[in-house]
Here is the input.
Amino acid sequence: RKEVEQDPGPFNVPEGATVAFNCTYSNSASQSFFWYRQDCRKEPKLLMSVYSSGNEDGRFTAQLNRASQYISLLIRDSKLSDSATYLCVVNGAAGNKLTFGGGTRVLVKP
Amino acid sequence: DAGVIQSPRHEVTEMGQEVTLRCKPISGHDYLFWYRQTMMRGLELLIYFNNNVPIDDSGMPEDRFSAKMPNASFSTLKIQPSEPRDSAVYFCASGQLTEAFFGQGTRLTVV
Here is the structure.
């Protein structure tokens, strides 16, 4: 089993709609969680950290469920510019290495 | 700061040749990571350093791969000899525990 797993998608989303997707992680001792965004042929960039209490940044909401070992990302009022691959990242208990999921591709269409 | 700087941006080489990828991290960052990205396998951590010391190289695929960080401002990833299956985008990232900043990557093609 992979340490961090994501549905690869693509999620085809009408402009203005809401989309949500999850990421599961295998190590229950994982300490930190993040969502990164990667545009086509570009490097990944931090979108937001994920806190235990859940957090929101504009149209983006991240949640952490430690009991079930998953994190989620919800995007409201989707924009065309939200089309990208969203990478789930976990900072594991065994050293401070950032482990990436395979990414979820989101395509927002007019 | 210019961010993480990688060179070259693109590299095409013949099978069997030695390839050296270079990375200049952001000044002040304690961690440096080397990742490889392919369509099939996604983003894989190859090795990471903390304060110039290699901490975990379990992701290095085999002995053909080696990485060094002689000082806080420079790291290399070397493949010798290169093989076609090494073709990928290689990213270097630097950061602290809370965030990693990526370079633009080196697109390696081994023919």
Q: What stands out?
A: Chain A touches chain B through 19 residues (CB under 8 Å). Residues 18 and 32 of chain A are 26 Å apart (CA to CA).
